[in-house]
Amino acid sequence: MSKATITRIFIGAVLALVVGLIVATVTVVAAILDGVVTIGGPNVVTVDGGVFAGSLPWLVIAMLFSAGGSVAAVASWIAALFNTVRLDDKTWFAALLVLGLFSFGWVAMIAYVVAGPDGTARVGDRGAAIAGPA
């Protein structure tokens, strides 16, 4: 898979995560303002099930965006690993692998998207050099 495709998947993953976060935040704030949770009175906390039931579909939508973004982010990380393992210099592969395993894969992916090499371009260049001029 080319670096351009990996970059598109990663950017899509980040956008999906951001949309999920925004939808969840707006839903929770709206539910609180509508009175889903009341604090005070003889009961310390009461929950209005009607308001909560109205906001539940939006929380499910937020969860789906977040889950889809997470899956796409992991897929882009794995694709970047497969792309960089083709390179002669394994520095990018090692950095992506180690940072990803220690839960800093997003840092490695941002660095890869900005400045990382494309392993598929190098394979194509080598094939042209081996075949010789046409």
Helix content: over 70%
Order of helices and strands: HEEHHHH
Q: Give the terminus-to-terminus CA distance.
A: 26 Å
Report the uncertain regions.
Answer: 126-132
The main β sheet shows up as: 2 strands, antiparallel
Q: What is the radius of gyration? A: 23 Å
Please identify the structural class as seen in this structure.
mainly alpha
Strand order of the largest sheet: 1-2
Overall morphology: elongated
Mean pLDDT: 86
Number of helices in the DSSP assignment: 5
Number of strands: 2
Q: Which strand-content bin applies to the residues?
A: under 5%
Task: Tell me what the structure shows.
The protein has a two-stranded antiparallel ribbon. The two termini are 26 Å apart. It is elongated. The protein has helices spanning 3-33, 49-84, 91-101, 105-115, 119-131, and strands at residues 37-39, 45-47. With 134 residues, it is mainly alpha-helical. Strand 1 and strand 2 (45-47) form a beta hairpin.
